[in-house]
Specification:
- There is one protein chain.
- The chain is mostly beta strands.
- The chain has one domain: Calycin beta-barrel core domain (Lipocalin).
- The protein contains one helix and 16 strands.
- The protein has one helix at about 5-15, and strands spanning about 15-25, 30-45, 50-60, 65-75, 80, 85-90, 100-105, 110-120, 125-135, 155-160, 170-175, 185-190, 195-200, 205-215, 220-230, 230-240.
- Strands 4-3-2-1-9-8-7-6-5 form a nine-stranded antiparallel sheet, with helices on one face. It has a seven-stranded antiparallel sheet with strand order 11-10-16-15-14-13-12, with no helix packed on it.
- The longest helix has 12 residues, at about 5-15.
Length: about 240
């Protein structure tokens, strides 16, 4: 199958239906700025050649809003899709332009997304984090960071490149987010989602943005967007179990 079409098929398969989530916006120090409810509705046509998206927001004030996106048409999508997650975002750091990274991880009917947003000078501005569930809202359990549960996570990693090439899964070793580069900002949220990213991004400098999702006390996923001196190079998903 054509790689671009294969990517589209994963979009259609894993992101159809209504995803119910609580979206929370955080400052760079982890303080809550605001929180609201959202139902993301993805509606594919019968032949799955188009996908229509509407986001239905309910804010703390009681006000509601619906935003329409798309339609997305086969095989064009800005996201890179693997079985356990997808990502999209800025491909290069450009002076005078904002920069963002959007990573979504998937386990059965649940999803976890973390978005890092940078301003025009490359400084980290805020995060938006939301767990979701297909079909209805759920109460998300409060979980500790993964390193507090075990240091013996065993896993595999899979990679997709911007030209949709997908590697075979290979065995990988686990490193806690806190053991990654010391100058990176690391935040652990109460919904099992954590993020590690630089406080400043610069053109011509390699970096990464990593998101951990502790699905439960025996399953951990990590999605990472990788950048070299030229720009975005790959998205990886690691799946760990104990």
């Amino acid at each position: 199958m054509d790689r671009k079409l294969q990517n589209w098929k994963k979009f259609c398969r894993y992101y159809s239906g209504d995803l119910y989530g609580i979206w929370t916006r955080y400052s760079t120090t982890g303080d809550v700025i605001e929180s609201w409810r959202c139902i993301r509705s993805f509606r594919p046509t019968a032949d799955c050649r188009e996908i229509h998206q509407q986001n239905h927001y309910t804010y703390a004030s009681g006000n509601t809003e619906t935003k329409t996106f798309g339609p997305y048409k086969q095989p064009i999508t800005t996201g890179l899709f693997l079985d356990n997650g997808f990502s999209w975002g800025s491909t290069k750091v450009k002076s005078g332009s904002t920069f963002f990274s959007d990573i979504c991880l998937r386990s059965e009917n649940s999803r976890a997304t973390a978005i890092a947003k940078y301003d025009e000078s490359g400084s980290l501005k805020r995060f938006t984090v939301f767990p979701e569930h297909l079909g209805h809202f759920v109460n998300v359990a409060t979980l500790p960071p993964a390193h507090q549960i075990s240091s013996d996570w065993q896993g595999t990693v899979q990679t997709i490149t911007p030209d949709w090439q997908i590697s075979a899964p290979i065995v990988t070793s686990w490193q806690p987010l806190d053991d990654l580069p010391e100058d990176y900002l690391r935040l652990h949220f109460t919904n099992g989602i954590s993020i590690s990213c630089p406080a400043q991004v610069e053109s011509g400098k390699a970096f990464f943005v990593a998101v951990d999702w502790l699905v439960n006390q025996t399953l951990l996923q990590r999605g990472t967007r990788h950048y070299d001196q030229s720009g975005f190079t790959s998205f990886t998903v690691e799946v760990f179990r104990i």
